[in-house]
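seq:
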Amino acid sequence: MRALADPTRLRIMRLLSAMELAVGELAQVLGQSQPRVSRHVGILCDVGLAERHREGSWVFLRAVIGRERGTPVGESVARLLATAEREDADFAAVCSEDRRQLAAIRASRERNAEAYFAEHADDWDELRRLHSPDRQVEKGLLAALGDEPLGELLDIGTGTGRMAELCADNATRVVALDKSLDMLRVARAKLQDRTADTVELVQGDFAALPFPAHSFDTVLFHQVLHFAQDPGGALTEAARVTRPGGRIAIIDFAAHEHEEFRERYAHARLGFSDNAIRDFMHEAGFEPRRPLALEGDELVVKIWLGTRMGAPATADCATDTRKAAR
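struct:
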């Protein structure tokens, strides 16, 4: 309670309830110096209300409260803060302005990523070859998925459409989704020999998938999760559209130290550890399986598989899970 007895720390906790943030991002939203914000963050971390996660030169923070990851005290704190924002007009106004500032930061990042995709749409396959051994990844993915039919498959962040093309013969239907119209134009050219009833291209964002619940038997994230500002939220949204017993496959880089990828390739995350993906999956409602590592020259590509557990969460639970995600 003493740790929360400061207006700045209350604001930080409300921001972290929305998404994981870097210290510098918090400082920008709060309009305070980074050392001052770091001191407040240290107090919250020391008492177990927040935790740090270092990734290259960046330090990300997340709230350790809520139903999925918090203690009973943490759950009570989460409810108390939400109630305070609903019932205290002054605090609500401050939180609303903080979120507006945060939205501006996120919008700027998304514009930069979209500009990058538009610039490199035609040579995206070449860039992927520079990052990872595609043939080995494709072979590994097919082996990991096995001979079991893929059913209705959602390829999130389809890019050039290569994964959709690779999996189409073992699926009853493929929906290839990408946020970039430039990438969809490239994918459409690659997939033009497929009939419309077997492959559908859709523009959309993995943070808000334009599909009803329980729509797909298999969901793929191929080299796209590292662009997510909120990977846990992206997996929670994927879980919403996955049928119980359905599968998810994430193909992405293992955690690495190539800091230049942030600017050069617009990567929001420098790969992922096995523990991070396992936590994301559990929080979203997937049961993870043993990952498969594919060695590369400089980077390790991993394939993480999971199975959708039980019935999908209610809307309230899904919201709480999203808030708890890294």
